[in-house]
Queue: 4 jobs
Job 1
Amino acid sequence: MKAYQRETAYREYCAEVSLPTSEDVCDRSIILPLYAQMTQVEIDFMIQRLKACFA
């Protein structure tokens, strides 16, 4: 997840925009894979990887 002003498409238009709250939230967030076709095996794999990160 990126703050919109950091996205490539907007960078040149928003070079001077500062959104410290959204930037902070984005810096502390992760995007997990999530889509309708995910199999149970893929879901279980992601759960195990997340558990390993926080163990």
Note: Residues 1 and 26 are 6 Å apart (CA to CA).
Job 2
Amino acid sequence: MPTTANTDNDTGAGADGGAGAGAAAGTVAHAGADGGDTSAGDASAGGASGGRPDRFATAAGRLLRSPAAAARYARLRARATSTPRPHDVPFGAGAGVDPDRVLVVGAGPAVGWGVSSHELALPGRVSRRLARRTGRGSHVAALAEPTHRLPAIRAALDEVFLENWDVVVVTLGAADALTLRSPRSWGRELDALVVSLVARLRPCARVVVVSTPLTDALSTFGLHSSGAAERHAEVLRDVAAEACSAHARVTHLSLPPLPALPALPALPALPPPALPALPPLPQGTTRSEEAPPAVDDPTGRLYELWAEALSEHVAPLLHAQRARTDSPQRARSRPQPERARLDAITAAGLDQAEPTAALHDIADRAREAFSTDGAAFDLVLDDHQWAVVSTLGSAQAMPLGESFCVTTIRSEEPFVVADAWEEGLDLPRNDIRFYAGWPVHTADGTRIGALCVFDPRPRDVSGLQVERLREFALDIERELFRRAA
């Protein structure tokens, strides 16, 4: 089971966490001093009388060890250039409606080292587990910072609009433990990052700071840690827990280490079975080698273990959020500013977006799935709707007075109309009578348009599978990401 640290005593978003981090840093000197590394730093870092660490000896020990630490970090950076990492769409989606939104940002696990797809890394695995735990949909995105450094993580977050996220997970990398960073300054950097996050999130949104076992973090690169680095990682973990405890909306999670697989009992030796002789091969051909047996995938097991621990930690936070009237989920379902939508469309280069074969394929599949005459992906601009792709004619504009999608983007929920001509509905009276749409978002959660299906005939919508609408809308979002990349 993972260990967690939590608190309910809020000292304010602007509280200085340096004192707490510094207090925990007092234990670091001892861990770094009696390190067990074979470098000369250990000898000079011995404790004072009574086993208490000498502050100057500890600092000297870190300095003497710094060439070896720098070399280890250089090996990490070099190995990172050849270690597989995902380059596909950086989010995973758990099936269901009313999705929770979680952003995983940082180094180490957030990057997805050792796997080729985000579906196999934290976004895909966490989103699926969260959906099973909550019974709702989920959207888990990754913002990777592969340099492993806290200032770089904060700089990456400074460019992100955060108000559409329910939980932000910050994963800490291996570099600071490898280079034996000063716990006091590292704690101040972490606290500054947490304070900045809390100030920019919705009032009820949560932050989770995640410490990763150093041995497992390095194993994804095929590297091993030293005894001194392992002990320093434990100290930085304690500093992180203490820094988080100063903020009511911030929790700390220590990911569990990967347990070793139990050894299989030895099987008694059996004589080889007598096999009939194989017929001779035609001249000029060779017999292909047998496929190698399946091997254990420790990296896959590692992400499975971490995803389970993270979803177990985050699901109760989401549940507690939704019980509040000021929850980020409620706020996210309100109409978003028109300026934000227009800026997002412009930034994505979609003002006069042209259809692509992939977008056409998504619209065709949606039309077939719902057995309708039409399906479309429409962008909602300032005074008109732009049909990026439509089975009834793409790259066309429509006045907003004739648009159903302008209503769809006003909330996070699907917009379904059984019969638009029904009395009392303030909807366009045109050739569309049945309509069902799901909002399409940019990466930061801004609603820019909708994936919709429609028909000139009304229909019974009691059994409509709106989850399928979300799947097609997510396909649109994936294709927009590929197009931007």
Note: The longest strand covers residues 447-455.
Job 3
Amino acid sequence: MTAVRFRSTALMLLLLVLILAPRLPKLGQFVTPDERKWLARSANFAYARFLWPTPTLLAPFNGSTRA
């Protein structure tokens, strides 16, 4: 393993630990007051995209619309 690859791997692991450290102790709890709504809306969006897979590249904005 080269030194550059070792450094990039170590940096990625460090970033992973820094990102997960605040979240891991509270995995079973909601972090923000609107997290339940956010999860429900995300699930509804994914469900709608599954039912009506319309191409979004035709619209001038990013989003899911049903024509």
Note: The chain has a mean pLDDT of 80.
Job 4
Amino acid sequence: MLFRIIITTILFSFLVPSYCQVLDSFFVKADEFYFKNVLNNKIRYKHIKENPELLNKLIEFIASAKIDSLSPTQLKAFYINAYNLLVIKNVIDHYPLNSPLDVAGFFDGIRHQIAGKKTTLNNFEKKELLQQFNDPRLHFVLVCGALGCPPIANYVYRPENLEKQLMDRTSAAINNPNFIYPDVNSNKIYISKIFDWYRSDFKPDVKTFINEYKKEGIPKDIHLSYYNYDWKLNDVTMNVDTLTKINSSSVFAPIIVAATMPKHTFEVNLFNSIFTANYQYNNSRSTYFTGLFQFSYGLTGDFDIGVDFLLKSYRANDLYNSSPFRVLEFKRATELVRTNDSLYVTSDFGLSHVGPRIRWAPFRKVSITLEQGLFFPIPTIPSGNNFDKAYYWVTQLYFNHEFNNKFGAFVALTFWQPIVPNEKFKFQVPYLKLFFSWYTTKRFSLYATTTSFTEWGVGARYLITPQFEIQALYTYYIPIPELTDLYVGNALNVMTFNLGIRYRINTNR
């Protein structure tokens, strides 16, 4: 019995160093592979596709590797390299492609053999790497094959250097101006969605973790926001013009109108709306124009103040087929337009109202915003203007939700309550507005909207610069019994034409 134990011990002592030598050979070949095929933090997929021999040998080793005798550091280094090489192999198997997401099940469907076991990339990353080693720095060395990932290194991760390599790659990513960068027109910092997806991994919190590695720390009063993850393939063959477009577009981000503004941000918003309708009782058209001028300032990031002005114009009892855009003539007159039934068109205009406004986001984790405004009538601009004597108490409740980096929605419940002096109070039915947005690019978005399910419309927004946005919207009322009577009465062919511009700038810059 003692003889068997001695022989077993002797054999084991020879086998362990032998397999460590085999593992070291894997690291040497992987280092050669990275050195030949990683250029400027991107991968030469086309070259690998044409010369797959070295990659295939590495994948064969990963599939049958013996890991039972490895130390935790050896296993950690092996797993990091295995993940990155398997991602590259998955790309090569389907190359050419524009993004890993072009391949169905790239991360959670296709199974790979690792040390004798089959698993998906997602399971391997989360269970074998993140859960087992509990090291947030892994997020900066595991590369998913996309431009949004941390840059890939052109060398292998080795057990003897792993601690320093993890520190270096984490610091390199966090100090990379394309990975973490300031917003050009607000006091917030854009960071990778990795910090959102794996928020619980970064202790004690995301900002503290970043500041441990960032050369210029992020101040406490700076808000962190997440830019859209770039899933384009990290292919070295991407030309310089494409890379320039990607980098230049990164400063563009859709403006979320239902949210409060970043701290110390000033905004000017002008929204022009033409409402027009036909009436059968006298075979006429009436048209109303409202120009809303808003000046807003972000006080804290969660609380905005502002002042609003209303410019109004109307043209009532015009000919049935008259142009609704004549309301933009801005004149005060009474004119005979049809003699057989003595139809007179009346028109007027004026800077009708002014009032303060506040907007408050009471919750950090729920995108709910409350806005309160009060409009006071201005009866003398121009002299004699008195067509709207009402005060308006305006309460709006917003809820915003971003489904992903392409689609979002927000809901607005609006109480636009007129209060007319010396007249009996009459409750105004609130409006429920729904908006569904499609962010086709970082600069251009399309949206569909409905108001109380009677008014339906389509619109578009475009960022000329990161600070300057224009938008256009057309809506049409679809008659729905009972609902339509609440909002437009017996009007026909009810529609609106809308055009808006918005400019915001951070006053700290």
Note: The radius of gyration is 32 Å.
